[in-house]
Write a structure and sequence with these properties.
With 100 residues, the chain is α+β, with helices and mostly antiparallel strands. The protein is built from 1 helix and 2 strands. Helices cover 22% and strands 28% of the residues. A hairpin with a 4-residue loop joins β1 and β2.
């Protein structure tokens, strides 16, 4: 009985190893494309011509950077505040840009 059990165990072990060995093979499936490849388009080679060289015009005038100064002004804005019962006018000093 022991020989039968050992041989049965050996057969089962070898069969299970054979099935797992099959799983190690890489299977590749190649499918035929459903459409034909487009025909190659034959076009003439591009012709390169040298671009004309145009020199920049000489600059005769020299411009100086503009001078930016700030002039003090007053900003006044009015808001309508219905809860307080009317409008509120606020005035604050500010500076405005002036270009000379």
């Amino acid at each position: 009985m022991k020989r039968f059990a050992v041989s049965l165990f050996t057969i089962v072990a070898l069969a299970s190893m054979a099935q797992t060995a099959q799983a190690q093979w890489v299977r590749r499936y190649y499918y035929r494309p459903m459409f034909a490849a487009p025909a190659p388009v034959i076009a003439p080679a591009p012709v390169f011509t040298p671009a004309p060289v145009i020199a920049p015009a000489p600059v005769a005038r020299v411009y100086r950077a503009p001078v930016v100064m700030y002039k003090p002004t007053t900003v006044t804005y009015t808001r309508h505040r219905p809860i307080l019962g009317g409008t509120v006018t606020r005035t604050r000093p500010a500076y405005r840009r002036v270009v000379f």
